[in-house]
Amino acid sequence: MTMSMDKLIQKIVAMNNPTVAGLDPKLDFIPGYIKEKAVAGYGNTLKAAAEALYEFNVGLIDALCDIVPAVKPQCAYYEMYGAEGVDCLARTIRYAKAKGMYVITDGKRNDIGTTMEAYAKGHLGQTQLIDGSFVEPFGGDALTVNGYLGSDGIKPLLETCKQQDKGIFVLVKTSNPSSGELQDRLIDGRPVYEIMGEMCESWGEDQRGEYGYSAVGAVVGATYPEQLTELREKLPHTFFLVPGYGAQGGGAQDVAGAFKDGIGAVVNSSRGIMCAYKKQELDERAFAEAARAEAIRMRDDIMSVVK
Active site annotated at which positions (predicted)? Predict the structure, then answer.
């Protein structure tokens, strides 16, 4: 069986593109004609909003699936539309997977014991129905998680990763401005993010794939390139999900340190890709073509520094 992170790396290698497109759709990002169509069909309702999100996502996925290996839907942008939005998330994941894309569900889940097991079953694994049969509710390939409850919050996921061939990305050094308030604090002279990274190494030590990376990845932001480079050296078996490129200010040189021998990380861009048509001041009906052009520009930019 090919391990989950191996599947992602194989797609990255095949497409020569270590990037992931974030699907964090706000109604503001969605072309007016899509929203008008949704309202005509469903009224001014949560259902209409969710349908507009889904049509936008389908357009993006169709435009990106042959050049970008993965998508990363952020749960919050769907949950804000209630049950209809959550259904849109599930449909978006199914559609992306049907198009051959690797799906990182960005939920940053954080709990312990059986509660974390429930998150694992819902987002990565299978849930048992009344008659005893099992179904896959969401079907993501990987899930972002918060490790600050310690091993009690991670170990329940590891069994699902092993059984269902899935992966997780643990928050280690995040890209937001205030991340250092906690993550840079020292414990026995070492920053918290370094200790969390070491825990990722140990959590994943018995689930390493053919490229040497385990099922337990780490979220490490492009906005802190020194720490990114430092952690790459210290965490040789931990694959990185790197937010912060593009709209948050990170560039190709900032992410270069995440890679070793051409692999080791996947770099995210959300708004930069989704809103490319706005930035380029193009007709809104060209949103998908603009997203594709931006994804190609991003790929070439990053590959210029990845050896």
Answer: 108
Rounded Cα–Cα distance for residues 151 and 168 (Å): 14
260 a catalytic residue: no
pTM: 0.96
Catalytically annotated residue among 99, 108, 155, 162: 108
pLDDT tens digits for range 167-209: 999 999 999 999 999 999 999 999 999 999 999 999 999 999 9
Choose among 229, 116, 129: nearest CA to 168. Answer: 116
| Exposure letters 158-167 (e unless 16+ CB within 10 A, then b) | bebbeebbbb
Q: Which domains does the chain have, with CATH numbers?
A: 4-16+107-303 (3.20.20.70)
Strand partners, 214: 208
Q: Which of 235, 247, 156, 250 has the alpha carbon at shortest distance from 202?
A: 235
